[in-house]
């Protein structure tokens, strides 16, 4: 997950995908803390650093209403008692190439915060709300240009600034909310860059590793040599491990992937294994598309192809206009219900395993 040439090429394509693809896909625990029933976007701070003691600085938090509380229409399995916590790190939504806020987004930018909440928090973070309390910190995310700039020092500095916020939020979460509960780390794209660092710094070889249910670190490659102790989740019930994939139209492998010299660990979200056999559409329990209206079962099949995941072109109203072959923006959407169910499977497996050990 270091800054390499493939990322610069990758993110150039992602910017195009965000513009073209987003319209199709992004269009509880007892506590004495007061529950906030509305979202406040009108907040200011004298310095640029977020204050995680205030709910405004969380895009998702169990003590306030936010889009991660929603579910697509038609889902009957509404949220159950939370059995674990998910710490979700959202992807890049600061995509303006002109970088009006500089290399890093402002923490209290109303327009960007709304964009984040109504895209990734709604369509990605909500997948965890059946079994988990959802924590997703606002952070000074790096502009998308940080991935492909020739000024690598500036790019690294931008990512470091973003990670320092994520790290501060996680420390605050541990001190004030966790209380020994099982933890899931989840992320997408830029969020996965930061999640990898977080897992290395706080979990690998540390006492906290015993609380790790799993990590859904999606949208960027996780190469074989990245972690020293964490392993890929090779079966649906595995815990203390990570899950990763990148989604493309079958038959297509972008140039930057072809240039990768290391093996990336890929999990098929329809089988939750590393088997390279094609998983049929009947295993796809529900994708989420435009307007969060409903789940669409059987939308795509999935097959691991070397370092990536191949799927068929999804068919839905308007899909005739879908020309792109990189489905990065839909890494979560295409497998929404499968992820939702697997979260519960792994949590129950984790709890049962720990019960036996104790």
Automatic annotation (TrEMBL):
Matching entries from SUPFAM superfamilies are given as:
alpha/beta-Hydrolases
Q: What is this protein called?
A: DUF3089 domain-containing protein
Check the record and name the InterPro entries matching this protein: AB_hydrolase_fold, DUF3089
């Amino acid at each position: 997950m270091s800054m390499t040439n493939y990322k610069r090429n990758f993110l150039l394509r992602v910017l195009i995908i965000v513009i073209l693809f987003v319209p199709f896909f992004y269009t509880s625990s007892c506590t004495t803390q007061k529950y906030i029933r509305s979202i406040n976007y009108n907040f200011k701070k004298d310095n640029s650093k977020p204050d995680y003691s205030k709910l405004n600085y969380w895009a998702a938090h169990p003590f306030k209403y936010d889009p991660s509380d929603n579910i697509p229409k038609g889902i009957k399995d509404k949220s159950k008692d939370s059995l674990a916590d998910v710490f979700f790190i959202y992807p890049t939504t600061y995509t303006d190439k002109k970088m009006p806020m500089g290399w890093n987004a402002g923490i209290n930018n109303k327009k960007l915060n709304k964009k984040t909440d109504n895209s990734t928090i709604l369509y990605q973070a909500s997948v965890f709300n059946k079994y988990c309390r959802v924590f997703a910190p606002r952070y000074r995310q790096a502009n998308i240009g940080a991935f492909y700039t020739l000024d690598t020092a500036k790019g690294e500095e931008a990512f470091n600034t973003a990670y320092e916020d994520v790290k501060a939020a996680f420390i605050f979460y541990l001190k004030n909310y966790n209380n020994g509960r099982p933890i899931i780390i989840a992320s997408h794209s830029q969020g996965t860059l930061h999640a990898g660092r977080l897992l290395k710094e706080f979990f690998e070889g540390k006492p906290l590793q015993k609380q790790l249910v799993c990590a859904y670190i999606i949208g960027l490659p996780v190469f074989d040599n990245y972690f020293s102790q964490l392993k890929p989740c090779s079966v649906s019930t595995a815990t203390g491990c990570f899950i990763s994939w990148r989604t493309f139209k079958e038959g297509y492998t972008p140039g930057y992937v072809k240039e990768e010299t290391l093996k990336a660990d890929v999990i098929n979200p329809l089988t939750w294994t590393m088997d390279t056999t094609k998983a049929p559409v009947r295993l796809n329990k529900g994708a989420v598309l435009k307007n969060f209206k409903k789940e669409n079962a059987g939308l795509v099949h999935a097959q691991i192809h070397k370092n990536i995941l191949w799927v068929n072109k999804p068919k839905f109203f308007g899909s005739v206009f879908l020309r792109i072959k990189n489905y990065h923006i839909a890494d979560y959407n295409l497998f929404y219900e499968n992820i939702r169910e697997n979260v519960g499977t792994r949590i129950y497996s984790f709890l049962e395993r720990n019960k036996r050990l104790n």
